[in-house]
Amino acid sequence: MPMDNSKRLRRSNSIIFVAFIAMLLSYVVFLSSLGDIFDGTICHNPFTNYLNSILSNLMDGQLVALLVALLLVTSALAFQKGVTASKYLKFIPLILVLFPTVMAGFYFGCRIFPKLIYQLDFGWGNLIFPPLLLIVPLFALIQFRTKISLGIGKVSWLVLAVLVLIMLVQMVETLVWGILAWSTSQPEVVRMAYGYDRTLMPGDYHIWLGLGLTMVVLFGGLAIVAWLDGLPAWRTRNESPEMQ
After folding, report:
1. I want to staple 14 with a disulfide (CB 3.0 to 4.6 A). Which of 114, 144, 167, 168 is the partner?
2. Where do runs of H (alpha helix) occur along the chain?
3. Which long-range contacts (CB under 8 A, 24 or more apart) does 25-28 make?
4. Could you report the per-residue pLDDT of 139-164, keeping only the tens digit for each?
5. Is residue 33 part of a domain?
6. Other residues' Cβ atoms within 10 Å of the Cβ of residue 202
7. pTM
8. What contacts 24+ positions apart, CB below 8 Å, involve 156-160?
9. How many angstroms separate the CA atoms of 180 and 232, rounded?
10. How many structural domains compose the chain?
11. What is the rounded CA–CA span in Å between residue 79 and residue 201?
12. Which residues fall within 8 angstroms of residue 102, CB to CB, at 6 or more apart?
């Protein structure tokens, strides 16, 4: 039997959430140190420099899109009638998402009012992203197993288009500089790492570079496919008969 539209959108959104976290972790674990080492290569290559400038302007949008989508669906879980959860337990996902959202609000407040940066310098990355790394996979599972209205699924899917677009740009940029880095000899990479005070993973760096690039492309591609999979459900106007 064909999958109903609400379930299709829930599946699409959940896969995008998990793929984003997996792609982020893949980059951090395998490629972040190499990315720092080859920063000069990225800046000197016209194409990677162009993509890098785009990413620097879009990274805030990525965080906003992720948090907006999380808030949309968690609010639906908490307040939507007929959601299969107890009176109090259904508010737990919303409470979990509010903490990184409030921290992100302070972060953007400091960006808008620079003077606050010197008064409220808490290390924003440590306050925003670790909770998100823990919340998003759990939330994706909760969302996939809970009925949510088609309207909420459509809005969330549309917001996640921003997240997927930025993942696509990040994937292309990582692939290009990764190919450039692949051709650099091992002694040269070790010398560059020493100059940047970075520690390479043991063994041939090509192994870690290959693993990182493979996983980034895999999870980025998975997010794109999942988003496209939700397109037919987004275009429909009504709930399926099973959901009405």
Report:
1. 144
2. 5-26, 32-37, 39-44, 46-79, 92-112, 115-119, 124-144, 150-182, 186-195, 205-229, 231-235
3. 25/133, 26/212, 26/215, 26/216, 26/219, 27/170, 27/174, 27/212, 27/216
4. 888 777 777 788 888 999 999 999 99
5. yes
6. 8
7. 0.81
8. 156/9, 156/13, 156/69, 156/72, 156/73, 157/9, 157/12, 157/13, 157/227, 157/230, 157/233, 157/234, 158/234, 159/65, 159/68, 159/69, 159/72, 160/13, 160/16, 160/65, 160/69, 160/227
9. 38
10. 1
11. 48
12. none
Asked if 14 contacts 223 with a C-beta cutoff of 8 angstroms, the reply is no
For residue range 70-129, list pLDDT tens digits in order.
888 888 888 876 555 566 677 777 888 888 888 788 777 776 766 555 444 455 556 677
User: Domain residues for 35?
Assistant: 5-231
**121 DSSP 8-state letter:** -
Residue 30 in any domain: the answer is yes
| Interatomic CA distance for residues 230 and 225, integer angstroms | 9
Residue 174 lies in a domain: yes
Checking 78-87 for CB contacts under 8 A at 24+ apart, the result is 80/148, 80/149, 80/152, 82/147, 83/146, 83/147, 83/148, 84/146, 84/147, 85/146
The label of the residue with tokens 């998003």 reads 136
Assess if residue 241 is contained within a domain. Answer: no
Identity of the amino acid at 35: G
Q: From residue 108, give the alpha-carbon distance in Å to each of 59, 68, 230.
A: 12, 14, 31
Q: Which residue has the tokens 């008969």?
A: 241
Q: What share of the chain in percent tops pLDDT 90?
A: 20
End-to-end CA distance of the chain: 17
> If we measure between CA atoms, which residue out of 83, 86, 82 comes closest to residue 74?
83
The encoded tokens of residue 206 equal 């090509």
